[in-house]
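Dear colleague,

Following up on Tuesday's group meeting, I ran the structure prediction for the two-component complex that the binding team flagged. I've pasted the input sequences exactly as they went in, so you can double-check that nothing got truncated or mislabelled along the way. The C-alpha cells for the whole assembly follow below. Feel free to forward this to whoever is handling the docking comparison.

Inputs:
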Amino acid sequence: MAKVRIPTPLRAFTEGAANIDVAGATVGEALVNLVDQHPELRDHLFNDDELRSFVNVFIGDEDIRFLQGLDTEIAADESLRIIPSIAGGRR
Amino acid sequence: MRVTLSRALQERIFEQMEATYPNEGGGFLLGQVDADLVTIVDIIQVENVFAVEEQHHRYAMTPQDWMRLEDEADERGLSLVGYYHSHPDSPAIPSEYDREHALPNFVYIITSVMMARADDMRAWLLRFDRGSFDGAALQIS
C-alpha cells in the first residue's frame, strides 16, 4: 500500500499517526481512502471535491499540481506527503 | 488552550517584524504540545516569498520550507506547533485571508506593527469547523 505522511497539525485527526497506509491507484483515490479512514480530515483537505488551494501533495520532491494532479498514478509502495502552504496577511 | 513563549523569543519576533516593516514577515514556531498547553521553545525565521509588491499585506512560505522544518523539528524531538507573522499598521487579529489558509491544532501568533514599532502580540487557534478563530491565552515568561 502507499503511504501518506500527515502534516503535524492534522495528526490530531489520525490518532497521532504521522504515516497512514492507503489504497488507490492514483493520488485522488489514495486521498479518498485516507479521508474514508479519517473523516475529520476531509474539511481541511478538500473544498467540495477539489483540494483546498493551500493543500499541496508531494511525491518525493514533485508537487502533483505539476504532474497530473489528483489523476497522477502512483505505485503500490509510493510515499505521498501532504504539505500545507503557509500564508497570511492583514487584509 | 494556553501558549507560552519566552520573553527572549518574543523580543526576537518583535525585532524581525520591525526590521521587515512596512512589509509582513514571519516564521515557524517549534515546540511541544501537552494537553491544553503549547510550549514554544524556538522560532525559525522564514523568508516571505509573496510577490514583493504585495508583501505589505501578504506573507507566504514555500511548501519546501514546511518540509525542511517539519523534518528538522522531528529530528530535534519537537513539533511544528504554529507560525507567526506580522500585520503592519493593522491590529493583531486574523483576517479573512488568514482564516482561509489556516489549519486547526496550529497556533497563529500575530504581531501588530504600528509605525515601525511592534506593539501587540496575540495568539489564535482556528476552530475545527473552520468558521473563525478563538483567542488563546498567551503567556510571556
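Residues 35 and 42 of chain A are 6 Å apart (CA to CA).

Cheers,
M.
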